[in-house]
Design a protein that fits this description.
Helix content of chain A: 55-70%
Helix content of chain B: over 70%
Number of helices of chain A: 12
Oligomer: heterodimer
Distance between the termini of chain B: 57 Å
Number of domains of chain A: 1
Order of helices and strands of chain A: HHHHHHHHHHHH
Structural class of chain B: mainly alpha
Order of helices and strands of chain B: HHH
Structural class of chain A: mainly alpha
Number of strands of chain B: 0
Largest sheet of chain A: none
Number of strands of chain A: 0
Radius of gyration of chain B: 20 Å
Largest sheet of chain B: none
Shape of chain B: elongated
Number of helices of chain B: 3
Strand content of chain B: under 5%
């Protein structure tokens, strides 16, 4: 009871501070706000800078992807880390590993935990999902690889790939999905995704530039100029993001659906 | 011109079916008939509207060598409609199945034959 009171107080204070901060923002579409009119003293505005320079700097037609993965690459890297941390947190809270006295494990052993009693007519759902899952995965890969040219990118494509595995688990059961994408594999993949992202940053640091300054990777990527190196590095970074997001999506689902036992489940 | 008219007809008919689905969800008496209205109406109307969009794209098509990107758009739209054709009825089926497992009771008028068979004793 007391914890609820404290939680309410914390939520109210945080929310109040956030709302208080909102008042300092410029209003929507204000032509005199710094992003639209530039800094005081008449410098070029940020939006104008991105619109005129992005294609010259990176050869990427989609401004949003360029800003996300290159100009603000540091921010996006830690967004990926946040996703990873969320997955690890849910793993730490939910996962039950081999404790015979745990009531959830006991319940599972006694066979009272089965949600799959209604699988007498899963033929329609199972067949459709078997047909649909490869198409979803192909589309997810397209969204990742085409992030430079059309809306999309690592986060969206990763969510699509993760959703395809969740669909597999929903249509048959969790075990058959875990056979294809085991716990060991998905956490390995999640870590590898962040390693790919940070690896691009560290490599450019070793070559004598700033962290995540992809232009210097040109000799490693065999491109014509630093612009194309930026473009290709963005693709690499997006692939890393997609790995992490896909793996963490599925891990969160698997832990929540089976109450941390990774057996039976929904 | 003709293509525009045909696509407009497709889209308008689709909107009529959408309205029917929406009214059905609100007005039908029980879970199964409501899901029926949503599933049937949504599937057909989405198909009609998207096919209308695809037809509308044909408007600017003059020569294959210059206007082939239009064909790509049409291909993508048709892909979406085929995807909906498969997934929407399956989703409705899954929803109905879940309702049946949860013993949602269908409304049957007094004295009408009950075709639920042996399964009906679960209620």
């Amino acid at each position: 009871m007391l914890s609820k009171v404290f939680a309410t107080i914390a939520v109210v204070i945080t929310g109040g501070l956030l709302l208080f901060g909102v008042y300092d923002f410029p209003s929507f579409g204000d032509p005199n706000s710094p992003p639209n009119a530039g800094a005081e003293g008449g410098g070029e505005s940020v939006s104008q800078y991105f619109i005129t320079h992005t294609y010259k700097d990176t050869k990427v037609p989609n401004l949003v992807t360029a800003v996300l993965a290159d100009y603000r690459g540091y921010d996006t890297m830690f967004e990926t880390v946040v996703v990873f941390a969320a997955g690890i947190a849910i793993f730490c809270i939910m996962r039950v590993v081999g404790n015979a006295n745990d009531p959830r494990q006991k319940k599972e052993r006694e066979g009272m935990h089965s949600f799959t009693y209604g699988d007498h007519n899963r033929i329609i759902i199972g067949t459709t999902c078997r047909v649909i899952v490869p198409i979803i995965q192909l589309f997810g890969l397209y969204v990742i690889a085409h992030g430079h040219y059309s809306p999309g990118g690592g986060f969206q494509g990763g969510v699509l790939l993760g959703a395809s595995f969740i669909l597999l688990a929903l249509s048959s059961d969790l075990n058959s999905a875990l056979k294809r994408f085991s716990e060991y594999n998905y956490f390995k993949l999640a870590a590898v995704g962040i390693l790919i992202y940070a690896g691009f940053g560290l490599t450019s640091q070793f070559l004598g530039e700033n962290f995540l300054d992809y232009g210097v990777l040109q000799p490693l990527l065999f491109t014509d100029g630093p612009e194309m190196a930026r473009s290709h590095s963005m693709l690499g970074v997006e692939i890393g993001v997609a790995f992490t997001v896909m793996a963490i999506m599925f891990s969160i689902y698997a832990n929540l659906a089976s109450q941390g036992t990774l057996k039976d489940g929904l | 011109m003709i293509v525009s008219v045909i696509s407009a007809i497709f889209i308008l008919v689709g909107i009529v079916f959408f309205a029917g689905a929406a009214i059905g969800i609100i007005r039908f008496p029980d879970f199964y008939t409501r899901t029926h209205a949503a599933g049937k109406g949504d599937t057909l109307s989405s198909l009609l509207v998207i096919t209308g969009f695809a037809l509308y794209q044909l408007n600017g098509f003059e020569s294959f060598s210059e206007d082939w990107p239009i064909l790509l758009v049409i291909l993508k739209l048709l892909g979406v409609s085929i995807f909906i054709l498969f997934t929407s009825p399956t989703a409705t089926h899954a929803l109905m199945d879940a309702g049946w497992e949860e013993c949602s009771k269908p409304k049957i008028k007094e004295g009408r034959p009950n075709h639920l068979g042996d399964d009906s004793d679960q209620f």
